[in-house]
Amino acid sequence: MEKLMSISHFLLFSLITLSSFPQHHHAAASSEYSRPPPRPLVFTSHSRSESDSQQVHISLVGKDHMRVSWITSNKHTESKVEYGKSPGNYEASATGEHTSYHYFFYRSGEIHHVVIGPLEPSTTYYYRCGGSGPEFSFRTPPSTFPIEFVVVGDLGQTEWTASTLSHVGAKDYDVFLLPGDLSYADTQQPLWDSFGRLVEPYASRRPWMVTEGNHEIETFPIIYPHGFKAYNSRWLMPYEQSGSKSNLYYSFEVAGAHILMLGSYADFDADSDQYKWLEADLASIDRTKTPWLIALLHAPWYNSNDAHKGEGESMRKAMEELLYKARVDAVFAGHVHAYERFTRVFDNTADPCGPVYVTIGDGGNREGLALSFEKTKPSISVYREPSFGHGRLRVFNETHAHWSWHRNNESDTFVADEVWLQSMYSSDSCNKATQRSIQRDEL
């Protein structure tokens, strides 16, 4: 019955989307590369028993714990994870919690969340959820450099999504970062289930750390006025561990990096909880322990694409100075379905002490690419291209990291943009400027 309902929802949704979403007809921006068109949705069906785990994904919790999340159709499956360092040999176990939610006529399966650990760094663990079903494995991130992050925005669940994930999985990495727009369910809840099954082969093996995008909001007047019901239920992040009051924004530390996951769709003005949390979080950072400081959010603060022009401006005006004074190294955003890298910027001006801003909303969304850029490229924009792809940030040590953007090709990825980054922590001139600014503020 669940499968039939899921398929019927999907067919209805497909008919709606085919008639309602605009198609892009802009000319290709470059003769060197033929821009790919959108590809169809991929609907991934449920093929396991009702008590077996599905949609398994993991996320970091503190320095040595992992949250395992999954869904079962059976309401009586125990929220329990058994795990160990060799296949089929589970030396430890942990129990957690489960929840479910309704959205109009849809009722989710049981959503399980279990925190396991303490775990050793750079170690492969084998685990089983709920006492039965398939065995999974993951590798914990390292405790020191080097560490490699994959960054993918606006992922969706199309054939381009499958291509992006295949390219991501072809080369090893440690942590997956997603700056919003996961499933593109847009109130069609079976698409959340389909998305969870699509990403499971990747999200069950490496921690996925996500923040929300506009397609996660899913509000409906009076009935669901607050939004994010499915997102908060399914993709629980370690917000409480960072002192946040909301799953929509939080921070975490891994190896020598402090990562800020900001919420473009939570209040962010100076009187908001998010702003006050960010102030406190930045003040707590010890750059001798985490010399790299990276931020993710959904709606970009800098953007020379015609799509979503200015939508991140109010958040930029509210929060940019906080990130600048904290000497954030890089800010990754999604929302615009193209790739663009800016130089180090503060207040719309090139600044050697500002963050590098990168828009990477090109994971595989169903709406196609944002092909139209401003005709005159701003001086602060270094590289821009409307193609599907993913990014990799490899932090080698406390001073240097390498960023690369990989365009999707049919059988392989192509590194179309890359740059070496020096951490702001290791910049004497920027550190001296920070000290002078602090002294002025204290006067």
From TrEMBL:
EC number: 3.1.3.2
UniProt-listed InterPro entries: Calcineurin-like_PHP, Metallo-depent_PP-like, MPP_PAP, PAPs-like, PAPs_C, PAPs_N, Purple_acid_Pase-like_N
Catalytic reaction(s) noted: a phosphate monoester + H2O = an alcohol + phosphate
Region ranges (Disordered): 28-54
Gene3D superfamilies, per the entry: 3.60.21.10, Purple acid phosphatase-like, N-terminal (2.60.40.380)
Keyword Ribosomal protein: no
Location of the Purple acid phosphatase C-terminal domain: 354-417
Keywords from the UniProt entry: Glycoprotein, Hydrolase, Signal, Zinc
Purple acid phosphatase N-terminal domain location: 54-140
Residues of the Calcineurin-like phosphoesterase domain: 149-339
Top EC category: hydrolase
Gene Ontology terms, MF aspect: acid phosphatase activity
Pfam families: Metallophos, Metallophos_C, Pur_ac_phosph_N
Signal peptide from the UniProt entry: 1-27
Cofactor: Fe cation; Zn(2+)
The family this protein is said to belong to: Belongs to the metallophosphoesterase superfamily. Purple acid phosphatase family.
Protein name: Purple acid phosphatase
